[in-house]
Amino acid sequence: MKKIRLLSALAIAITFYSCSTVPLTGRSQFNVVSDDQVNPAAAASYKQLLSDPKTKVISTGTDAQRVKRIGNQLAVAIEQYLKANGYADQYNFQWEFNLIQSPEVNAWCMPGGKVAVYSGILPITQTDAGLATVMGHEIGHAIAKHSAERMSQQMLLQAGGAAVGAATGNKSQVTQAVVNQAYGIGGQVALLKYSRNQESEADRLGLTFMAMAGYDPHMAVTFWQRMAAQNKGGSPPEFLSTHPSDATRIANIQKLIPEAMKYYKQ
Questions:
Q1: Fewest CB within 10 angstroms: 120, 121, 245, 262, which?
Q2: Residue 150: predicted pLDDT
Q3: Which is the catalytic residue, given 96, 104, 138, 201?
Q4: Residue 214 region by backbone torsions, left for phi larger than 0, else alpha for psi between -120 and 50, else beta
Q5: Looking at residue 47, what is its pLDDT?
Q6: What is the DSSP track for the chain?
Q7: What is the pLDDT of residues 32-49, one digit of tens each?
Q8: What mean pLDDT value characterizes the chain?
């Protein structure tokens, strides 16, 4: 009983003293994993991926130049926003943007600003605005520190907060496996719902970031409509998905466009 009380008290204390605020959305988040822990590991993983003989980095040509140009435009706009709103000291991003040859329809941004775009998504992005939609969304995850937040949540679930200090060195895959084993399907569904919330927040951030960089937020709707057509018949039920349904995402983005337009600079 004493142990349970101690764990509960520790969990409450960690939660209370480990809250931060997501830029622009103002959401309070629980985070016990620092950038000093996450960013160097992310940078090392990114470097390893790019140097892997199996990875085909496209470094020349129009598409590679577009990825770097749009990425840099987003980075400049985001850095200006963070500085103007008192968040600059909370971020130390070393931006990199690379195009990887792969049929996979995907893109991602690691903590610290390491971005990869897969060539398989370019036929769907089609335009600069479509590419800015994707890159802005993925960067939104990094700015909101979603990876660190999820790791923090998983560690708290894993041991009621008692193992937070020791667990910070674990890889996220390890803590995820422990959580799934301990909590079963109920725990998995809870984490999936949390992930959908993160996706929606990244949509909101990405929409505003692309507007700041000079891309019309209305074009995000047309991109996601093309993505929905690509996903037709292949998406899992929304309540068991880490992403909102296409219809839900598009409807939410349409509601967010007026907010993003306030930052739109042609």
A1: 262
A2: 82
A3: 138
A4: left
A5: 94
A6: -HHHHHHHHHHHHHHHHTEEE-TTT--EEE----HHHHHHHHHHHHHHHHHSTT--EE-SSHHHHHHHHHHHHHHHHHHHHHHHTT-GGG-----EEEEE--SS--EEEETTTEEEEEGGGHHHH-SHHHHHHHHHHHHHHHHTTHHHHHHHHHHHHHHTTTTHHHHTTS-HHHHHHHHHHHHHHHHHHHHHHHHHHHHHHHHHHHHHHHHHTT--THHHHHHHHHHHHHHTT-PPPGGG-SS--HHHHHHHHHHHHHHHHTT---
A7: 878 888 888 889 999 999
A8: 83
Catalytic annotation present for 149: no
> How many CA within 13 A on the CB side of residue 232?
5
Of the chain, the percentage scoring pLDDT greater than 70 comes to 76
CA 33 to chain centre: 15
